[in-house]
Amino acid sequence: xxxxxxxxxxxxxxxxxxxxxxxxxxxxxxxxxxxxxxxxxxxxxxxxxxxxxxxxxxxxxxxxxxxxxxxxxxxxxxxxxxxxxxxxxxxxxxxxxxxxxxxxxxxxxxxxxxxxxxxxxxxxxxxxxxxxxxxxxxxxxxxxxxxxxxxxxxxxxxxxxxxxxxxxxxxxxxxxxxxxxxxxxxxxxxxxxxxxxxxxxxxxxxxxxxxxxxxxxxxxxxxxxxxxxxxxxxxxxxxxxxxxxxxxxxxxxxxxxxxxxxxxxxxxxxxxxxxxxxxxxxxxxxxxxx
Length: 290
Ligand SMILES: [Zn+2]
Fold this sequence. Notes:
By secondary structure, this protein is of the alpha/beta class. Helices cover 38% and strands 17% of the residues. The radius of gyration is 19 Å and the shape is globular.
């Protein structure tokens, strides 16, 4: 069943064999999720951990092979389990840095998110045993700049989109954007609950487009894409928003609009995984248009 196989997201076991070079200083382990590693002379930055300690160990192996210095920063694009729960595999000396909003959201919600993931499969349940977090070493409000030695990573909090505390990373010298779930290719975006913001998402797309990144390393799906994908995501959302508002004006319920638009987009993008995400996006448009 090739169509079905194609429609599945990657499985949660990361492999060092899937390590790719993006640019002079940036590497990515392609998987679920894609994990970026930025290597400077003075320090290394890892973006996201993989799901649970076992995946975190794989990320650390890859990091140790690439690193030119023992100084290691870890940041996370958002609090969801596959991005954060491998933290304990990182050494105690690793400097954990994230934005304040994401940390607060994580404290409140990562437990429930892990529970949801544990229910998805026996493998997830196994990977998410005995997850431990420690307090971050550095919290920032809007932006943090990390001089990694010959390469600079700027960490941004730009307001809610996929979650409340989404963080994006721009590697200046290489012109590489690591946008979390905000810019992805051939995947239906996810607005999992009322914390997700379409307005915020569109505003972030404008901001990152202005950076003119040479490469984008999304969290899910293809691990290396170009800047044209920003416009593709914007066009997708504007079309979805217009269609949802049209149905709302006609008096169609959010639930029925979700079903209708899901069917339409499934037909339009038959190879994209997780079409069940569309209903949540439609619901956000209904909730957030006043
Ligand atoms: Zn997520």
